[in-house]
Write a structure and sequence with these properties.
The complex is a heterotrimer. Chain A has two domains: 64 residues, no CATH class; 231 residues, no CATH class. Helix content of chain A is 71%, strand content 3%. The longest helix of chain A is centred in the middle third of the chain and has 30 residues. Chain B is an all-alpha fold. In chain B, 69% of the residues lie in helices and 2% in strands. A two-stranded antiparallel sheet of chain B has the order 1-2. The longest helix of chain B has 30 residues. The longest helix of chain C has 16 residues. Chain C folds into three domains: 233 residues, P-loop containing nucleotide triphosphate hydrolases (Rossmann fold), CATH 3.40.50; 184 residues, Rossmann fold; 65 residues, no CATH class. By secondary structure, chain C is α/β, with parallel strands linked by helices. In chain C, helix 4 crosses helix 5 and helix 8 packs across helix 17. Chains A and B meet through helix 5, helix 6, helix 11 and helix 13 of A and helix 4, helix 10 and helix 13 of B.
């Protein structure tokens, strides 16, 4: 067997990054179709359902957006953190905490809600700040004590999830309905995010999210703080030598990503569920990690990758209905696609020659 | 408000702590091996899930619990092989590849459950493993019934602890693992294959996680897809950090965590004003507090998370 | 493979015509011949960058030569990895030890070897054998101790024991005394002689002339990748060795105006600095650099220059003493504060400390002032707002023309630049803005001729315009050509302060290698 020499490429060009990403986008639905074909289901029917579920119909497209919106903000925050080489695995906890903060505020005004143009911005701001606050603990533990942020953010996530479980069964529980359900009272109409596409659940949430992606793009590439985050992520030693306050930058990256995750949680609760439920901890914080990777940790790339994933989720439900297959098939496909994307991206970094 | 603490409830509590912690303990032991060699497996949760579904299925269809555990371990090994390939050979970032394994595990286990069991009915139960009381010791009041009358896998967990301690500390393989995780260049110079050792460590680690997941399914008797592990895999990874990469410390760390977790249940039984779910936050907060406390002494294996490149790239 | 050398009549090692090229055009070894007799201690002498370590790394299998042959005990040998060399009886102790710090001595020694007990490690019999070897060769160390607990000198013994345990008949030692205290050196040499008595052949890589005279039988001098000579130690003097080591050709440097005495810009007083291992690297050093002069710091690396530089630029806090920049105290201040006062720093490690490989040229150029005008817009003169793209672009274009940076454009990543162009980029960043003090380390290392000349002329230019320059350089000839005064550092102190015109390079070389000490050293 000939000896193969694998060497890391010196400079992965922007072009090849785009090609690899596109490749990943294309391969993924093919994987789904392949899995289905292996299960004996018709790929053509599946392809049709996939198309209708993602962009073919209004309902499908709306669902794509609804699924993709919360992912977008979380992945955006992660893009900032990961570019600073801060491994924030706790976006899940931060988004839950953002939702908790919103709930607290809404419940204060449950009987006597203020008008929407007050309630909504304040609530969203609070979710942003709540996420930031929640991320401050792991941030300080990392910068002051050098404690690995992977572990601390995971722990914080469980703190948030258990807090959620407690709150919806305790202080925040809706006591007015008979029985004991783990849910908060339904939020007043003044807190609902306005719907922008009639007869769907598409709210201004998507507009806010895309706007923030563009804002973060300018932040990362046009402001000094964004520049320093990127510098520290690429080469902390050179950054330090040039006078950049590395610890402060790490804190900023972590806290900002937590804030965006919190906001994502806030938009989800005000746009989709309109109450605090245990399902707020849906696991999108973890999915967002992969979405961020697929978007190359780039604020604009994240727009596409989160919509892509939203489409994946929406399309798969459509396929499930059309082919009468279990919901878990989407989960499986998602898992396979994620590993495949990781492999493709890793391979892109190398050249393989005969030795 | 009287606190009624009687022998039976304490005994039950101890038994519950053990049953809760044993899956994590297996996973933590495996993770220690993997991380000592320099590779972190964030997908332990997914590996445990795959171990759980395979053991559950074997137990249900073949009525052979022990074989189920074996298969659970074997499936874990396969997941480990995949992780090893992506993070060692392809040098993909370990955080990302670990999460990929997590998602794959979640999807695979849920899907397999649906395939095998969705037709069968609502509540599928399996018999679980019989208790094997140790003569005399199990007669000890209060603790004897729980501590010394466990099922075979629970005993195995403690045996495994001893084996892992010996493996890491007293075998050539363990020596290689430690060298490769601490100073791979030194090991490489002396002819130790960094790649092979890391592959082996990751696969062994994942096998143990698979066994842990298998036991979880068997001891739970029922299977709630997607939630049966409830984060135990991630906790196991945290416990390795908590135990400063020493097998015994990580192992008993999981029991401490289990005890803290069941504190809520204990107070619930005993009657307390602190709500159950609130107390569930305790073990996580406690872990964070302890981490702050031990922050100074904790030093991970120097090469942890860093793909090895002979030319130093 | 027989390791019995008593009946061998030929040399232990014969290396012929060894050539090694590295990417970037550097020729580390140029047709070098080297021979090691059985039972001799052979010194391999040369300045930094002469190719000594490369040559021995080739012998040890870490590198593969581009040309030439190797024979070990008469047998031709091709080493694909150190494991091959070890099997042929060669052991090497590197300058940076390859030890696993939280494993015991025994564990480090037996790593990679098959255990007699099969699966389990057999520490007790290994302990015994190691102790016996240690005793036999005067390298006592506690086999049960963990590496981090040992002093550096003891760690070195472990490295030697590693080789002896594997029945090494040939031992290569790379600058072994650089980590030893003077008192330890005597014992160390005693052990070396003992090893030689047992028939082990030793190559001693060093730059220290006194050691060569002390313990070697023969010495080979390398210079700029070529072998200069092999002599028996008895027949040479330190002076002639220094002469062989140092390149006489002093490059012509244009436009060097004689400097009148000016204000002191950098004042260092009694500076004591500890290195990462807790060893005192700077022992109360004092020096000053004036406006419009270049103070060269001569010395072989490892004598405190790195710690001096780090203390000056704010990367390492001194234990005591003071540093003042234009009268302002900057001791222990953060890099940001010192940069703001007018510091420019050109580090020796370009890719790690001076540039961000994945940043573009224009992004690298603003690394120090990205949050200040004109690069950054300001709100109310206090709050930074947005980066000014036009300004950044024009600065990059200007820099590329002015400093001759050759690249595909200002958007080229720093990673794609050659060494010379990367250095031009770094200089463009550091030297614009008329810095008051320029600290520069190994400015022309690894650069081609054109880049080297350019860098030198730049430094002279800055000096002529009034900058104070502290130049740390292992290239003695360059140092002599560029500096107005030279301070020689040895073991954390200045052992000499002189003017290049008044001293010969041999004299400086002797000071550098600790053979001499000037009476009036500050």
């Amino acid at each position: 067997m000939a000896r193969l020499k694998v060497t890391a490429k010196l400079d992965v060009s922007r072009r090849s990054i785009l090609i690899i990403t596109l490749l990943a986008y294309v391969v993924s639905p093919l994987v789904v179709l392949g899995v289905l074909a292996a299960a004996g289901k018709s790929p053509l029917v599946a392809l049709d359902a996939l198309y209708r579920g993602t962009i073919g119909t209004t309902a499908g497209f709306a669902e794509t957006i609804v699924q993709g919106t919360p992912l977008m903000l979380l992945a955006l925050g992660l893009a900032i953190a990961f570019r600073g080489k801060v491994w924030n695995i706790g976006a899940e906890g931060q988004q839950v905490f953002g939702a908790i903060t919103v709930t607290w505020f809404v419940l204060l005004f449950l009987k006597d809600p203020l008008p929407a143009y007050v309630m909504i911005p304040v609530a969203l701001l609070l979710s942003f700040l709540g996420g930031a606050l929640f991320a401050t603990v792991p941030a300080l533990m990392k910068s002051r004590l050098g404690i690995n942020e992977i572990i601390t953010t995971i722990m914080m996530t469980y703190v948030a999830v258990e807090a959620l479980n407690w709150l919806v069964r305790g202080p925040f529980q809706d006591k007015t309905i008979p029985g004991s359900y783990p849910e908060s009272p339904i939020f007043p109409a003044q807190t609902a995010l306005p719907i922008i596409v009639p007869n769907t659940s598409v709210t201004i949430g998507i507009i806010i999210s895309v706007a923030l992606c563009i804002l973060v793009y300018y932040f990362l590439f046009r402001t000094p703080l964004g520049y320093s985050i990127r510098a520290v992520g690429f080469n902390p030693s050179a950054a330090r030598t040039s006078g950049i306050p590395v610890k402060r930058v790490i804190n900023s990256a972590m806290i900002l990503s937590g804030a965006l995750a919190g906001l994502g949680g806030g938009i989800y609760i005000l746009g989709v569920t309109h109450e605090l439920l245990p399902e707020q901890a849906s696991g999108i914080g973890y999915t967002a990690v992969v979405v961020s990777l697929l978007g190359n940790m780039h604020p604009l790339g994240v727009i596409f990758s989160s919509l892509f994933f939203g489409g994946l989720v929406s399309g798969m439900s459509s396929v499930e209905r059309a082919l009468q297959i279990p919901r878990t098939l989407s989960l499986l496909s998602q898992g396979i696609i994620i590993v495949l994307i990781l492999i493709i991206q890793a391979l892109a970094r190398y050249e393989i020659k005969r030795a | 408000m009287a606190m009624i603490v009687d022998a039976a409830s304490v005994s039950e509590l101890i038994a519950a702590i053990i049953a809760l912690s044993v899956p994590m303990a297996f996973a933590a032991l495996g993770e220690v091996i993997s991380e000592r060699a320099g590779v972190i497996n964030l997908g332990t949760e997914g590996v445990m899930l795959v171990g759980a579904i395979s053991a559950f299925s074997i137990s249900f269809f073949q009525h052979d619990n022990l074989f189920g555990v074996l298969v659970g371990g074997a499936c874990g090994a396969l997941m480990g092989l995949l992780l090893a390939f992506v993070s060692i050979s392809l040098r993909q970032d370990q955080v990302l590849s670990g999460l990929g394994i997590y998602f794959l595990g979640v999807g695979l286990s849920g899907f397999l459950y649906d395939i095998f069991f969705s037709q069968i009915g609502s509540t599928i139960r399996i018999s679980g493993l019989p208790e094997l009381p140790i003569p005399l010791l199990s007669q000890i009041p209060v603790i004897g019934d729980s501590l010394f009358s466990q099922d075979i896998i629970e005993y195995l967990a403690f045996v495994m602890l001893i084996l892992v301690v010996i493996l890491v500390g007293r075998t050539t393989f363990g020596l290689n693992i430690r060298a490769v995780g601490e100073n791979p260049s030194a090991a490489d110079t002396l002819g130790v294959s960094v790649t092979k050792i890391r592959y082996a460590a990751v696969i062994i680690g994942a096998t143990l996680a698979g066994v842990g997941g298998a036991y979880l399914a068997l001891s739970s008797h029922a299977f709630q897809a997607e939630n049966i592990t409830a984060g135990r895999g991630f906790i196991a990874v945290a416990m390795v950090y908590f135990g400063k990469w020493r097998p015994a410390r990580a192992f008993f760390g999981t029991f401490l965590f289990g005890a803290a977790y069941l504190l809520g249940a204990f107070f619930q039984v005993v009657g307390s004003i602190i709500p159950y779910y609130f107390l569930l936050m305790v073990p996580y907060i406690l872990t964070l507090v302890v981490l702050v406390g031990i922050a100074r002494g904790a030093r991970p294996p120097s090469a942890l998370g860093v793909p090895y490149n002979r030319e130093g790239g | 493979m027989s390791k019995d050398t008593k009946n061998q009549s030929g040399p232990a090692i014969v290396m012929q015509g060894i050539t090694k090229r590295f990417p970037g055009g550097v020729i580390a070894n140029d047709a070098v011949d080297f021979e090691l007799q059985v039972g001799e201690i052979h010194g391999l002498l040369g300045e930094n960058g002469a190719g000594k370590t490369t040559l021995m790394n080739i012998l040890y299998g870490l590198y593969q030569p581009d040309g030439g042959t190797i024979r070990v005990f008469g047998q031709p040998a091709v080493f694909g990895s150190p494991a091959d060399a070890i099997r042929s009886g060669i052991g090497m102790v590197h300058q940076h030890f390859k030890l696993v710090s939280d494993m015991t001595v025994t564990e480090n020694v037996v790593l990679g070897l098959k255990s007699p007990k099969g699966f389990l490690t057999d520490t007790s019999s290994a302990d015994t054998r190691i102790s016996a070897l240690a005793e036999q060769h005067g390298l006592q160390v506690d086999p049960k101790a963990q590496i981090w607990q040992l002093a550096v000198g003891q760690q070195q013994r472990v490295e030697i024991l590693k080789a002896l345990y594997r029945d090494a008949r040939i031992l290569i030692l790379d600058e072994p005394t650089s980590v030893l205290a003077p008192s330890e050196v005597k014992d160390f040499f005693k052990s070396l002689r003992g090893l030689r008595e047992s028939g082990i052949s030793i190559v001693l890589i060093t730059h220290k002339l006194d050691e060569v005279m002390d313990v070697t039988e023969r010495v080979t001098v390398l210079r700029k990748g070529r072998k200069v000579a092999t002599q028996s130690t008895g027949s040479v003097s330190q002076e002639s060795l220094a002469h062989m080591m140092i390149d006489e050709a002093i490059p012509a440097v244009a436009n060097k105006v004689t400097a009148p005495a000016h204000d002191v810009i950098l004042q260092v007083t009694g500076l004591r600095v500890f290195d990462d291992r807790g060893i005192e690297a700077l022992r109360g050093i004092s020096l000053e650099v004036r406006k419009g002069e270049i103070l060269g710091i001569a010395g072989v690396s490892g004598n405190g220059q790195r710690e001096l530089v780090e203390a000056l630029v704010g990367l390492r806090k001194p234990a005591s003493g003071s540093i003042a920049l234009a009268g302002k105290d900057v001791t222990g201040k953060a890099p940001r504060d010192i940069i703001d006062l007018g510091l420019a720093y050109v580090p020796e490690n370009r890719t790690e400390d001076a540039s961000v490989a994945d940043f573009r040229i224009d992004e690298n150029l603003i690394l120090k002032d990205f949050n200040k005008p004109p690069v950054c817009g300001m709100l109310a003169s206090k709050i930074p707002t947005f980066l000014n793209d036009r300004e950044i672009r024009s600065r990059a274009e200007q820099a590329m023309t002015q400093f001759g940076i050759r690249a595909t454009g200002i958007s080229a990543k720093a990673r794609s630049l050659s060494g010379g162009n990367l250095q031009r980029l770094i200089l463009a960043r550091e030297l614009s803005g008329s810095p008051m003090l320029i600290v520069v380390s190994q400015p022309t290392r690894g650069l081609d001729v054109a880049a080297t000349e350019y860098v030198r002329s730049l430094l002279i230019q800055q000096r002529n315009h009034g900058a104070a320059v502290l130049l740390v350089d292992e290239d003695l000839a360059e140092l002599i050509a560029l500096s107005d005064r030279i301070a020689v550092m040895y073991k954390g102190e200045t052992v000499g302060l002189l003017e290049p015109g008044q001293s010969s390079s041999e004299e400086i070389g002797l000071l550098m290698t600790g053979a001499k000490r000037m009476a009036a050293a500050a």
